[in-house]
Amino acid sequence: MTQSSYEAFKERRRHFGEKEGFDPLFIPDALFDFQKFMADWSIRQGRGAEFLDCGMGKTVLQLVWAENVYRHTNKNVLIAAPLAVTQQTKREAEKFGIEINLSRDGDVKPGITITNYERLNHFEPKDFIGMVCDESSILKNFKGATRGAITDFMRKLPYRLLCTATAAPNDFIELGTSSEALGYMGYIDMLKQFFINAENNIGTGRTYGKKRDWRFKGHSQEPFWRYLAGWARAMRKPSDFGFSDEGFVLPELIERSHIVKARTLRDGFLFEMSAKDMAEEREDEKRTIQERCEMAATLAQTKEPCVIWVNRNDEGDLLEKMLPDFVQVTGKKTEADLRIREDQFEAFAAGQIRGVIIKPKIGAFGLNWQHCAHTITFPTYSYEQDYQMIRRFWRFGQKRDVRVDRVTTESIAHIQDALKRKAQQMDQMFTALVQYMNQALTIKKADFNQQEELPSWLS
Prior knowledge:
The chain has helices at residues 3-13, 33-45, 58-73, 85-95, 144-154, 172-181, 187-194, 221-229, 278-287, 289-299, 313-322, 335-349, 360-363, 383-391, 414-441; strands spanning 47-52, 77-81, 100-102, 112-116, 130-134, 159-164, 195-196, 206-207, 210-211, 215-216, 232-235, 253-260, 306-309, 326-328, 355-358, 374-377, 402-409.
């Protein structure tokens, strides 16, 4: 590689390092106090992340941020969002008098343009000064090339905003990729500085089929959270930052477990045994599809809206036959399929379809389905997916109690215990995150009661 080509390579990989924020030009009076606080911070920050719980107004906050960047620079801003969330965002923009252009083919008009991640290849970074990644935690669900393309798209943009409800504080690789996407410390550098794993290396893949367990280095926990507080704000409820929780109290969440009995046993067994590894868990899932789908279909026999989350194509196909008033939303990615999926999401939100059968990776991010208060899942080890599935319904603004029915078998019932354990860990880590962020915002003032004394030569 020649010196000139190496310099060109470095320039392509270089992030802008300067802080690009500015004084806010537009903050709607209709925002709640905590939303005004978050909007003010993100605009002054220029490149930052907002980790807010579902229903706290991430959509309007990213719209206000984008409008401020457009007014400040008179250059275009792009919002990338999950499929169908684009329609929700456009409707929200109209409420606040913010003009937004929904583009599916790369058409860019002056101001704010919104598209979904699957269509980002139609756009060019040179046409924009800033970008918002809505539901940014979805990025790790994309293949490496797609995730890399999104990060590269943002790399040279001075203004960047990441918005998500679940940038899991215990998912350090995800927090590292967020840091890198914003132009701060790269995720490998972040891992090297603050963390260590059992293999004492910086590998981010799996070892022996298991995900690496990262833990803090000695005395690095507080420096890490302070580093994170330099470019992110996290909030589960307004009182996390000293605001009133009035109007932001969640209804009751009713969780029920349904353990079905397998009609056929594992080869060589006389009675059902708990699955010991992933291979046995997958075998159990495949062997009990009929039993689990029958239970799910029975639970869905109401007149109320309902969403059933499946993990396998054969589960979705079977449930579609059992429930003729439900629609199965598939993950095909041709342009025609994307349009059909958008229409299906809109029809369900409008009450034209009673029920939806869908995989979490297709519809668990960003959609607001408050008209529905019942969901059915087949549990997996993914806490984030479980959280996101439930939060489509159980979110601030929901007026009814939300019912979650989890259907599993005797062999894999222990997965639910793992989910509960991860939920407790998530709560503990989020508490620490909010605590350190508050400390970073607080300037402690010492009280001095002793009268000052003048030196003798001044007396």
